Amino acid sequence: MIHRQRKHFAMIIHGARAEREDVRHLIDWVRGKGHHVEPHVTLEQGDGTAMAAAAARAGADAVIAIGGDGTVNEVLNGLDGFDTPLGIIPVGTANDFARQAGIPPDVDHAMDVILRTKPVRIDTASLNGRRFLNASTGGVGAATTAETPADAKESLGPVAYAITGVRKLADFEPYRASFRGPDFSYAGEFLMFAVGLTRASGGGTLVTPNASVTDGLLDLCIVEAMGRADFARLVLKVKRGEHVGEPGVHYAQLPSVMIESSEPLSVNVDGENSDATRFDYVARLKDLWIHLEHLPGE
Question: What is the pLDDT of residues 222-265, one digit of tens each?
Fold first, then answer.
């Protein structure tokens, strides 16, 4: 007779997903396999971080984020300083990281990844001390995410970002900032930038197509100010990850980068926006245990 080890799973569930039938079935299904499941429902910003940290201190075998990229980000930061593995059940809008790592959108199949794979150790990145997993974007890309209505995200999914992006092209203005890292410097006008730990953001846009979660580096992409028509053509190449080496595109791989601006910039990190005039990005080598189908980009 095969005896499977009984495990302790803490599930951190986004409040808007807690009543989904498939999520409620998932809890019963995992318990039916003999595991101890503790569901925790988030109600406001910061709940996921606090709940994940408490679960790690309590000795959970894995803390599972059930939601979108924002929920994953909160749980990721709650696990900072712990070796407790992260699991992901992707039921958000874009689910950029989960899609790149081969985690299925079906909740039962996503749970299978957690149950049958051993966790692997990957890098994370941090912005002003807070960890993230995807690509952090500024300029037109961040403004698009910030201005996409929540109800549009729910009903249209990634298409909502594209619709807002087209509207932004009608009245876009260049931004100005300085970018500094080891053996890299750029100062001037730009339309967008991305600091990527993984290759895709914004519903699958390959903005940092050479990024890796195991090389200890961040991929920095800067698009200089240019005419609307030139930028519109370039955006199509960015979507496919074919923009590296194009005129007006700067691309570098760095262990850290600092961005400074005299005016506040809106920057998106794992689906959430913040405004500041200084952004310190740092690669954190082998900083997280996580259950994946495969490494992002493989």
Answer: 999 999 999 999 999 999 999 999 999 999 999 999 999 999 99
- Does residue 272 have an active-site annotation? yes
pLDDT, tens only, 4-39: 689 999 999 999 999 999 999 999 999 999 999 999
Question: What pairing do the DSSP bridges indicate for beta strands 175-181 and 256-269?
Answer: antiparallel
For the domain 8-117, what is the CATH superfamily, name and number? Answer: Probable inorganic polyphosphate/atp-NAD kinase; domain 1 (3.40.50.10330)
Which of these is catalytic: 38, 147, 224, 272? 272
> Model-level pTM greater than 0.85?
yes
Fold of 130-285: Tumour Suppressor Smad4 (2.60.200)
- Count CB neighbours of 236 within 10 A: 10
Q: What is the DSSP string of 95-131?
A: -HHHHHTT--SSHHHHHHHHHHS--EEEEEEEETTEE
